[in-house]
Backbone:
């Protein structure tokens, strides 16, 4: 063989094998270099509280072997396979697939709503009254809170194209509003829910007003800073918020005045049922289902109204919007306020459900997770955002529950430690796999003759 | 007055560290227009690399010369951190170049979360203290029993920062690498047409940024004597604030911003309230972006209609 | 200065730092006419447009627009002396555009514009583009969103009317068949036409077009002429256009203003301008004397 060209026609040729081996060797060396300190050694404190090193050559070696093997698999199996697939790619195929996908999307929504409504019943049937608390509370309610937050932020990021990295601030405003007003004035959940939403919306306008003329990443950074400022104030203003210690004993929501407790005037007694804490969980579950559906309903309605169209137009081209007489400041503020309001609802629900809140729950990490859900789902797509919330939050919640892994990796293995590690990794991988998110096409808000989905390549992501 | 001088010394020390990190933010933003969110965590990782390297040197190899061990630790941290940053750019950012604008930002946030949790899992969640490198102090002035001191470690920080910045300055202003970087900042397509290897230039930018962050990480560890896996976020944000304050894209601006943020933080702690020092830093970020979005030394952006 | 003007630009100067893009420019655009603003590259035409439509705030000068009868001009000086942006008077009103932010220039003074590099909402359908243009009237009809969210019927009626209006324009620009396609998917010439239709959906009294014929082939250019003439004659909207393409300018313009290096070098009917040696000199990049000599040689 005289010359080995880079696009050799025989995928399994010797040259390819050599190159794959070389790449794998480089990957292995890079891994060795990177991981030698952090994996090869472990810093632990000895009895004298001094830091000493332990070595972990086995773990380092395993990691290098995994990377080398992975590199070989990618170059020898996955890459040729993808090349073959790209060569065999027919244009009509993707249109057909898009059609299949559209059909699935059409039936997905009613199915998903139906499933969400019967989910607690299913979990009671399969896991029993005791076992289902975990599935309904930790899993169902938790995921639905993030679905709702994702949908709320979707208005700001997905529709209006304004990147808000401090969304959790409005969630915090909602939660603290509920907690403080309920404790101070004894107002009920149903009065405070809209009030907390309004307060959050008000804060959205207050913070939004000075920053909305900023563009691009600057807006993202300012919103991040606002989010952090609000959290730091919550920590430091001890007389008002009780600082790090948080607020406990927040009144729990009642069933229209009937408390969920074991007393004679409690929910179970009034309805002649046997007392179980599950009733409250079920009630909370359906409350958050209702709130999430309200968010979805309002968002879908708004998209078909001039304000919603102006949001999307703003995302597409702000200057053109201004040339058409759209007051872009007001349009951005409504998006900000609307998003903040839904965060406020979710926040007051969160406070009512937990009974305890502290600044720890409103870190930047939460904002990042919500933004991640919106972008991973596909900006502007409500179904995509819901799928992303289920996958990311549900996935990490399930990690809490994987005790069987201990049988594989030994008893010292704690799967919950890996939750956020995998969350971060998943964010990176999904972005590389689908930079525009899971569902990147756009449904037009109205049509003259025929509803056609707008392909992802036309839809812009906004400059704000 | 004494307090002021003391805080001035402390502020310049802290500001040097912020400035070194800020250069990484500002260079990457200048060249690919992306806020490298994981940069603060790269800084934290470098502090851990420095921690482990110094433990190997002192407890295993028994090197007693402080300067020698500091030098070796610095070099190790710079090399390994550069390698990590190169890999991150290669795997998590390069595939996304030229695609959806938010994708690299989200990928960077994901990488930030990953790095933080990786270090937590690999090294444990507790604070990691090390014995101090330099303990001696110089008493600069004394009045009514209050001593204004300049610690040896502060002098070391100033010296290392100055030397490395001089080297860095030479690299980006006098070499062909610097020219390639400026060309890529202006127009990547045009730069590649005239023969600049854009991918390589961007990789090198990440490597330089990481190397300076590693210096900052090592100095941070030496100064505070403790590091934990969560120490990347807040210094990262403050360094970013510094980059924005100085004018993002401007290298002298990053250093100036770093010094200002360091001084404001120490002065605020001394004269107002230590609890709200982070609030002060974030407020400066907000106020700068609203009223002076181009920063102190940056170029103003003109809206194109 | 003629009283049948709809727009008066007086002593307009725009500086960017040390660069003077437009210097002491005065001209008028008459109601019901097509006025063309021409000039070589870099003459400052787009800057003038941006000053008129509120995207730039002029360094000096006055940009006034009237609605209604020409008697409105009588109060120009008193309005300028006041700190107001506009004044209603009888059936009409007078606006000082340099005092208004960009969106109000369209919303209140009803000046619409297009852009040199087309700015459509590419990811929205053709129909949606035309509906965004009717934002302000629909906003009122939806009770600033409140009635709309509740699903009250008066909003549905308003939206129906808006879709009808959009359909009328789609008919006019031959894009009815593509109403439900994304605007970014249209061929270039169709995008130009759509941008004009979108501007017209804001019900302007003055339509400002920034190089509408740029990049069009001769057939599309002829279609554009017809469209602009129908906007002038049937809808009675005054038009101000920047153009390079002389075939468009010379066939449809009633009045031509020539700019070079930010100052006006000629102003008159198309024939006057066509024969102005200063204009020829500016376009050919030679001295006036040489032009005169060359013209003498060919017997002009």
Residues:
């Amino acid at each position: 063989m005289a010359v080995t060209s880079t696009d050799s026609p025989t995928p399994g040729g010797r040259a390819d094998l050599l190159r794959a081996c070389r790449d794998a060797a480089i990957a292995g060396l890079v891994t060795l270099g990177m991981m030698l300190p952090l994996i090869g050694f472990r810093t632990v404190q000895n009895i004298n509280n001094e830091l000493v090193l332990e070595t972990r050559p086995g773990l380092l070696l395993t990691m290098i072997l995994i990377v080398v093997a992975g590199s070989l698999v990618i170059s020898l199996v996955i890459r040729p396979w993808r090349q073959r697939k790209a060569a065999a790619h027919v244009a009509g195929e993707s249109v057909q697939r898009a059609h299949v996908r559209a059909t699935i999307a059409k039936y997905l929504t009613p199915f998903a709503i139906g499933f969400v409504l019967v989910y607690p019943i299913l979990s009671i049937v399969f896991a029993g009254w005791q076992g289902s608390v975990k599935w309904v509370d930790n899993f169902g309610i938790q995921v639905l809170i993030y679905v709702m937050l994702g949908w709320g932020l979707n208005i700001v990021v997905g529709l209006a194209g304004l990147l808000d990295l401090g969304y959790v601030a409005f969630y915090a405003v909602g939660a603290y509003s509920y907690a403080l007003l309920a404790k101070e004035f004894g107002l009920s959940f149903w009065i405070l829910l809209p009030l907390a939403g309004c307060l959050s919306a008000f804060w959205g306008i207050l913070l939004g007003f000075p920053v909305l003329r900023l563009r691009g990443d600057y807006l993202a950074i300012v919103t991040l800073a606002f989010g952090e400022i609000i959290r730091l104030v919550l920590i430091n203003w001890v007389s008002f918020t009780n600082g790090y210690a948080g607020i406990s004993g927040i009144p729990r929501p009642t069933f229209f005045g009937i408390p969920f407790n074991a007393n004679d005037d409690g929910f179970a007694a009034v309805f002649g049922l046997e007392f179980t804490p599950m009733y409250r969980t079920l009630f909370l579950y359906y409350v958050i289902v209702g709130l999430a559906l309200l968010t979805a309903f309002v968002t879908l309605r708004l998209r078909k109204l001039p304000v919603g169209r102006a949001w999307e137009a703003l995302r597409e081209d702000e200057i053109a919007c201004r040339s058409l007489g759209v007051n872009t400041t007001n349009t951005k503020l409504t998006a900000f306020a609307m998003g903040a309001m839904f965060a406020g609802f979710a926040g007051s629900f969160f406070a009512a459900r937990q009974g305890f809140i502290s600044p720890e729950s409103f870190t930047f990490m939460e904002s990042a997770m919500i933004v991640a859900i919106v972008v991973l789902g596909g900006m502007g797509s409500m179904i995509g955002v819901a799928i992303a919330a289920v996958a990311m939050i549900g996935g990490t919640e399930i990690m809490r529950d994987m005790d069987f892994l201990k049988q594989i990796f030994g008893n010292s293995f704690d799967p919950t430690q890996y939750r956020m590690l995998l969350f971060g990794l998943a964010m990176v991988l999904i972005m590389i796999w689908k930079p525009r998110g899971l569902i990147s096409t756009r449904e037009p808000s109205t049509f003259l003759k025929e509803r056609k989905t707008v392909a992802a390549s036309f839809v812009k992501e906004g400059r704000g | 007055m004494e307090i002021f001088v003391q805080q001035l010394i402390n502020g310049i020390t802290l500001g040097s560290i912020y400035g070194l990190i800020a250069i990484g933010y500002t260079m990457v933003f200048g060249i690919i227009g992306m806020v490298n969110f994981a940069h603060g965590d790269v800084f934290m990782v470098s502090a851990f690399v420095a921690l482990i390297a110094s433990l190997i040197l002192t407890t295993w190899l028994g090197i007693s010369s402080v300067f020698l061990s500091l030098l070796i630790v610095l070099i190790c941290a710079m090399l390994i951190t550069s390698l990590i940053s190169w890999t991150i750019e290669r795997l998590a950012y390069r595939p996304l170049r030229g695609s959806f604008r938010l994708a690299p930002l989200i990928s960077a946030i994901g990488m930030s979360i990953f790095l933080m949790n990786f270090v937590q899992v690999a090294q444990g969640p507790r604070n990691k203290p090390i014995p101090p490198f330099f303990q001696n102090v110089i008493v600069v002035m004394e009045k009514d029993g209050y001593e204004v001191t300049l610690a040896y470690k502060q002098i070391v920080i100033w010296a290392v920062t100055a030397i490395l910045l001089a080297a860095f300055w030479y690299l980006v202003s006098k070499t062909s690498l610097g020219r390639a970087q400026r060309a890529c900042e202006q127009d990547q397509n045009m730069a590649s047409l005239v023969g600049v290897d854009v991918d390589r230039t961007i990789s090198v930018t990440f490597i330089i940024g990481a190397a300076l962050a590693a210096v900052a990480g090592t100095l941070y560890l030496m100064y505070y004597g403790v590091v934990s896996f969560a120490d990347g976020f807040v210094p990262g944000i403050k360094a970013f604030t510094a980059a924005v304050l100085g004018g993002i894209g401007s290298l002298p601006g990053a250093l100036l911003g770093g010094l200002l943020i360091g001084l404001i933080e120490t002065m605020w702690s001394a004269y107002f309230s230590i609890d709200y020092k982070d609030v002060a830093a974030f407020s400066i970020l907000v106020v700068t972006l609203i009223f002076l979005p181009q920063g102190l030394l940056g170029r103003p952006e003109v809206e194109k209609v | 200065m003629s009283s049948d003007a709809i727009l008066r630009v007086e002593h307009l100067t725009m500086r960017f730092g040390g660069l003077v893009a437009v210097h002491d420019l005065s001209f008028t655009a008459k109601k019901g006419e097509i006025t063309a603003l021409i000039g070589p590259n870099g003459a400052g035409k787009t800057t003038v447009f941006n000053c008129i439509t509120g995207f730039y705030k002029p360094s000096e000068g006055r940009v006034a627009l009237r609605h209604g009868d020409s008697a409105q001009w009588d109060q120009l000086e008193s309005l300028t002396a006041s700190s107001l942006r506009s004044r209603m008077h009888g059936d009409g009103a007078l606006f000082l555009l340099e005092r208004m932010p960009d969106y109000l220039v369209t919303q209140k003074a009803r000046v619409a514009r297009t852009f040199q590099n087309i700015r459509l909402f590419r990811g929205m359908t053709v129909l949606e583009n035309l509906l965004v243009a009717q934002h302000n009237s629909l906003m009122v009809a939806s009770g600033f969103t409140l009635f709309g969210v509740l699903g009250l019927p008066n909003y549905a009626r308003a939206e129906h009317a808006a879709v009808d209006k959009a359909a009328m324009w789609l008919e006019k620009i031959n894009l009815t068949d593509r109403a439900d396609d994304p605007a970014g998917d249209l061929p270039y010439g169709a995008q130009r036409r759509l941008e004009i239709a979108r501007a017209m959906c804001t019900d302007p009294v003055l339509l400002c077009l920034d190089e509408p014929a740029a990049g069009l082939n001769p057939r599309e250019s002829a279609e554009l002429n017809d469209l602009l003439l129908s906007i002038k004659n049937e809808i009675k909207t005054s038009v101000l256009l920047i153009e390079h393409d002389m075939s468009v300018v010379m066939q449809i313009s009633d009045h031509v203003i020539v700019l070079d290096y930010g100052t006006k070098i000629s102003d008159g009917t198309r024939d006057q301008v066509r024969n102005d040696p200063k204009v020829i000199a500016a376009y050919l990049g030679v001295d006036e004397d040489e032009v005169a000599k060359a013209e003498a040689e060919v017997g002009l």
Chain C has a mean pLDDT of 85. Residues 153-172 of chain C form the longest helix (20 residues). Residues 1-110+204-300 of chain C form a domain with the Rossmann fold fold (CATH 3.40.50.300). Chain C touches chain B at residues 16, 46, 50, 55-56, 115 (CB under 8 Å).
